[in-house]
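Protocol step 4 of 6: structure prediction from sequence.
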Amino acid sequence: MAQLPEKFIENMKKQLPENEWEAFFACYENSPYKGVRLNPLKGGVSALKGFLPFLDEPIAWEENGFYTHAEKVGASPYHFAGAFYSQEPSAMSAAPLLDVQSGEKVLDLCSAPGGKGTQLACKMQGEGVIVLNEPISSRAKILSQNVERMGIKNAVVTNEYPADLAKKFQGYFDKILVDAPCSGEGMFRKNAEEALSEWSEENVALCAKRQAEILESATQMLKDGGRLVYSTCTFATAEDEGQVCDYLQKHPEMRLLKQEKLYPHKVKGEGHFVALFEKVGKTAEWDSRIKEAKASVTSSGEKAYREFEKTFFHEKFARRLYENNGVLYELPNGVFDWKGLQVLRVGVRLGEVKNGRFEPCHSLATCVKKEECKNLVDFSETDTRLQKYLRGETFEDESVKNGWCVVCINGLPLGLGKAVNGVVKNHLPKGIRAT
């Protein structure tokens, strides 16, 4: 790999005991560890492990995490189906500290591309509301795509700066994750060219300043008794232990419960830092102006959807319908009124009413389970039609009934098709088709 910056080497020698220097710097001659996290919303370890031959040993700090020896797993049809998320092993250590529960209000403040945020959402099992926020619009779009692929029903994806978000959500969230933008020292082995080219002592200082500002916004949004996790992928003291020390001095209402730094010569993963805080005093009252969003749908829109629902599902699927310009959504229970926010996704986009008929969209397919659906095609891995479907091509299936159907691989939904006399037209979105 490229030469490590001399100042970084000097800083690490100050930070580590001398008897660890050789082991730490020797890590950079080795390949980084790779990991995947299985999706409990798609069945979890027991249901999925047998389909994924590239899984190796479990990752100790994440119950659904596994190391993998595979170079590329993104082309797997199970990736299309949202069965797993590729995630660096050490990065999986932060989210479990929050111990999120079903029904809570949760915020991932710096969420893109979505590894930690979808990790939190999977623990919530579709109950409660999780806000996944990303200030940079291009990255927010990628985040929204990953939320869709993983089949998350209770997410709101926002595109706001933390300070602007804090104006609306004073004292609102039970749990907050701040995976702060950092100098990336912990990624020197994994993303060597990019991380090394951007590193400087000046950048470390700039990152520390920005992190402190983000933490200020997060603190305002945390309810009394709530918990906050702060994490980085750097070794820099100013961004890690120093940041924690400064934060506690500014915020006596916050108590540090745990902090830990993961080094690549001690764990099978890259560099990472995590700190867990609890709010034990008051800083901001919950803003009673935060109103719950009302489910609202036209009679014609509901009629069209319910007629589709009867033919597509065995039982009622959507409970809280919301309609906007003919597009129907299922809202999470307890979701707030998002007026005034830049929002990319709220709950599940079900589909659109066109000429009095309801047409489902891909987002609906990612959230359903095989046993919920009346009409489906279920491919095995060796079925030649599987790759045709992933490429966006039409295929034949004499067993499927006319109308909308879910296309699966071994029971895991991939997307939608529409059958006419044994020919299934492909409705997999162009942007996610295999090349």
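Step 5 (inspection) to follow. The chain has a mean pLDDT of 96.
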